[in-house]
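Risk register update: the risk of archive-format incompatibility is retired. Evidence:
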Amino acid sequence: RDLGFPANLGGMLIIESDRGELATADIARVAEICSKAGAIEIAQASNRAESNLLHEARRLALPAMEGLGALLIDDIAVPRTKLVALQEGLETISTRRKLRIATVGHVGDGNMHPVVIFDRGTEDVRARLAFEDIMDLGLGLGGTVTGEHGVGLLKRGALGRALGDLLSALQRQIKTVFDPLAIMNPGKVFS
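Archived output:
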C-alpha cells in the first residue's frame, strides 16, 4: 500500500512517548535529536490518525517483504550501542551472499528481526548461510541468537556457540532430570 513515503526511503524509525501530557515535549526533543543526527525527514504525528498511519507502515513491512520473495525471518538481540554495526554487518552479508536482507525490530531494546529474502520455490543455500552469518554477527557484537522468539531448529548450532560447551552440557543434564527417557520434545536441542 502506498503510504506516501519517498521511493528511496532506506529506513524508518518510529519513536513514541508514553508520558501523557509530557509526550508532545518529548517528541519535539526527540525530533531535534534526530535532526542533529542526520535524519533526512521527520514526521511528527499530531493526532491519533497520523500516529496510526506511521504504525501501519510498520505493520505492512512484512507483507511488503513477502511480495519480494520467500522469507527466512531471524530474531537476534544486540546491545543498543551496536545497532549501527549490526546494520552495517547485515549490509555486508547481503552483498556477500547476493541476497536482500531487510530489518525490522525494536530499537529500544536491541531486539531486531533481520529477514533474508530469496527466490520462492527454491531451497536457497545462500539464505541458510546468510542466516548463520547473521547469528555469528549478533554474537560477535555481544548479543544473543534470539531476542523474543526462541531458538527452534534453525538455531541449534548458534545456541551452542552462544552458550558454550559447559552451559550446553549443564542444560542437557537439567533436561535429563525431568525427561530421563528423552521422550519429551525429541530431536530438539536438549533431547
